Amino acid sequence: MGSLVGHVAPGLAFLALGLWHLFNHIKIHALHPNSYTSSPWFSTSKIRYIELIFIMLASFISISMELFIGPKRHQPLDTDGTIPSYHLHNFEHSSVSMTFLTYAAFAILMDRVNPKAQYCLTQFLGAIAFAQQLFVFHIHSADHMGVEGQYHLLLQFVIFVSLTTTLMGIGFPKSFIVSFIRSASILFQGIWLIVMGFMLWTPKLIPKGCFMHFEDGHDVVRCSSEEALYRAKSLVNLQFSWFLLGVAIFVVFFHLVLVTTYGEKNEYSTLRKEEELQEEYDDVEPQMNVMIVKSNSFILLVKSFAPIDMER
């Protein structure tokens, strides 16, 4: 993962998943605002497990890249069978991918078995995946103090939001805002990973006073002075704040567009049902009036014959 492709590729995966979840949650809430219930994953009309298969495939590719394709000898172990220090980060990244692979696999299994606690257990496994991701980036063997470490630190805040909202989703499955924030945080994870890839491994984008240095098997950004490092970290903080604002504007605008689109369809469908009911009522009402007239005539007829019967 310590490269441009190693950050951009998983970033695109998180970006796609975040958009997919955001779209589906907003659409369902717009169509069924009163009966909305969150879902940990979504299907399509043709392929039921398309999202989970995508997660499994992306995780498998990530593990293969980290442990077998990326290393020069196409295996991460040393000659004596131990893990060399320059491959520790490969195993850390693979652990995250393995957790997401486990989540997707068990999500499919539980959907097939359909236990009563399916939703809660699926959300629980999703929370475990985000917890593993947060743990790995917090104790990352890569640089903690430099520019890359600042990017990782800010990424942890976004992962924490994903973890918290996933856990909250277990207790509040009907809360749209919890699902909305969770989807937005997954989207933001993807964007931030992509930003990291380009900003840390594109020489022209490295902050002034800093340079690329090859350490422990991969390139890292180092700064020539404390002042240059402080400036570089400050620029990272500014980037995060700008992208945070941009994501907030995008998700709210995206929500308004989808609500306008699917909300109008829902309102049109409701009006059509009301019109159909009104037409049925209009058809039935004359028949009811005739029945009432006939019943009143019958009552009057009975009353008119009653004195005659009594005289007899």
From TrEMBL:
Which top-rank group of organisms is this from?
A: Eukaryota
The record's keywords, sorted A to Z, are: Membrane, Transmembrane, Transmembrane helix
Name of the protein: DUF716 domain-containing protein
Q: Does the keyword Transmembrane apply?
A: yes
Membrane spanning stretches: 6-23, 49-70, 90-109, 121-139, 151-172, 184-202, 240-263
- What is the membrane topology here? Multi-pass membrane protein
For this protein's source organism, the top of the classification is: Eukaryota, Viridiplantae, Streptophyta, Embryophyta, Tracheophyta
Compartment(s) where it occurs, according to its Swiss-Prot or TrEMBL record: Membrane
Q: Which organism is it from?
A: Cephalotus follicularis (Albany pitcher plant)
Q: Which Pfam families match?
A: DUF716
UniProt main location, coarse:
membrane
Query: Could you say which protein family the record assigns here?
Result: Belongs to the TMEM45 family.
Q: Which GO terms describe its cellular component?
A: membrane
